[in-house]
Amino acid sequence: MTTAKTLVKCSVSNCHYWGEQNLCRADEILIEIDKHSGNAFKEEYAEEMAGQGHHDYAGNSSATCCLTFKPNE
């Protein structure tokens, strides 16, 4: 069974996953609260933050950030 992908729009054109019409082409997306944005993660997907039991609360969209970002080389 194939599951439909969620359409993700992103305007950060210097991201490795950025596609035409501002479409994100990443297979996975990790969005975290800004409180964690200064942490150094091992992978672009920051899998250590996405594990079971890790939950945070954001009051609005401006308190979040995309940790999937990977700059173009």
Terminal CA distance reads 35 Å
Number of beta-strand segments:
4
Shape label: globular
Order of helices and strands: EEEE
Overall average pLDDT: 76
Kindly name the structural category.
mainly beta
Mind describing the biggest β-sheet?
2 strands, antiparallel
Order of adjacent strands in the largest pleated sheet: 1-2
Low-pLDDT residue spans: none
Task: Output the radius of gyration.
Answer: 13 Å
Helix content: under 10%
How many helix segments?
0
Task: Tell me the strand percentage band.
Answer: 5-15%
Pfam families: DUF1540
InterPro entries: DUF1540 (IPR011437)
Domain DUF1540: 8-69
Protein name: DUF1540 domain-containing protein
Features of this protein?
DUF1540 domain-containing protein, two-stranded antiparallel ribbon, DUF1540, 73 residues, single chain
Please describe what this structure looks like.
- The chain is mainly β and 73 residues long.
- The protein has a domain at 29-72.
- The chain is built from no helices and four strands.
- It has strands spanning 18-19, 23-24, 31-33, 64-66.
- The strands form two sheets. Strands 1-2 form a two-stranded antiparallel sheet. The protein has a two-stranded antiparallel ribbon with strand order 3-4.
- The termini are far apart.
Provide a quick synopsis of the model.
The chain has 73 residues and is mostly beta strands. The protein has no helices and four strands.
List the helices and strands and how they pair.
Blueprint: E1 18-19, E2 23-24, E3 31-33, E4 64-66
Antiparallel strand pairs: 1-2, 3-4
Pfam families: DUF1540
Protein name: DUF1540 domain-containing protein
Organism: Paenibacillus riograndensis SBR5
